Structures are given as structure tokens and as C-alpha cells.
Amino acid sequence: MPGRIGVSEQTASVWRTATLTEIRRETPRASTFRFAVPGWPGHVPGQHLMVRLTAGDGYTAQRHYSIASAPDDSGHIELTLDHVSDGEVSGWFHTVARPGDRIEMRGPLSGFFAWPGDRPALLLGAGSGVVPLMSMVRHHRARGLALPLRLLVSARGPEDLIYGREYGAETTAVFTRSAPAGVPVGRMAAAHVAPLLAEQPPGGWEAYVCGSTSFAEHASRLLVAAGQPVERIRIERFG
Asked: Average per-residue pLDDT in the chain?
């Protein structure tokens, strides 16, 4: 049974100076921030890192963020951040940060939610919970992996769907408040999950669930009800 990916504590403890090189708007509330990170040791899709901002008076603020980019990205890292109301760090990124700015980051961190591309992956995400899952999708594409990968992603509406232009045949989008003509509106349901569990690939799925606490609990229940073994569900939640 695949387990936790090993993380080097020595490597993960090193703070590196990262230079912001690009900002891309994804949705009205979310943007992707691309950084050049000299000496970045590489990561496994699904891992996250810690960001540290330091003000002129020495005050520091730190936050954990999932990595959005695939591992093979030539010394660059991408983070996709929601603009959280009253968010100290996300607010700085969305209102102050400009290309050329420098911040500190360390990682990669956590090996439990990581997917190295060695087993079929069933991914369920909502809102910004899709960020670490997109790293997995990009890795799958970049390496041309033959292993099955499927993504179910939930958003309020098409305008809120992060990475909406990148999804392909591996992805099914679920819209909870508004949807294109002919597409039903509603929560992720058994009708979305059960068909994927009914015809499993050899060895079965390794399931990855990421989103708010309420979404993670709901999606996990759907998986278990459809027959997914509890020990093969990996969950990352926030809020």
C-alpha cells in the first residue's frame, strides 16, 4: 500500500529567497503567482510550502500554501491564492505584490497528500482546494503518464472555476450556484462519484480530497458510500 512520501527535514527547514516573476488572474478572487526560486530542491505534486513576509519594521507573517505547478518547472514555483477578506498575507499578494518583489519560502512540506504518479488517482476538490490537485494533473500531462487520473472539481459557477481554461477530458466540473445552459446546478453527488468507482482501474484508485472542512467531509462520505476504502482516501482541508 503506498504511504507517506519522505520529506527531508533539513531541506524543508531552509528558507530560500524567491523572486516574483509573473501574476496571472484566474478568477475574480484568485490569482496565480509565479516565482523563481534558486536552489529549490523539487517537490512532489500535492505538497505545500511555507511563505514568510517581512515588513520594514521586522514584523513577519507566515502562511502555508499548496504548490500549483508541476515538479518539472525549471526552478520555478507557482502558488494560486484566493483573496481572503482581511487576509494579512493573501491581501498583500493581491493588492501590493508586483513582479520583482522578493519573499522567503521553505519546503516542500508534508508527504501524506503527495502523489508521485505511481498509482491511479481520483481527485476531488472544491474552490481553491483544486490547487494541489492541479499540480497532479499537470504532472500527469507533462510526463505523459498512462496511469488513469480523474478530477471532480466543484465551484460556485464557471467564473469561479480556477484553471477553467486548462481542464481536459480528465475533468468533470460541478457548479453549485450557476452553470452553463444545459448543465445541472447542485452539490457534488453520488451520481458524479459512483460511476468512477464502478469501473476501477487495476489496483483501484488512490483518492485525494481537498477543500473546506464541510466539502472534505461530504466528498469523503460519497467516496466511502461508493466503495472506496477509507484507508485509500487522503484528505487536506482548510477553514
From this structure: 94
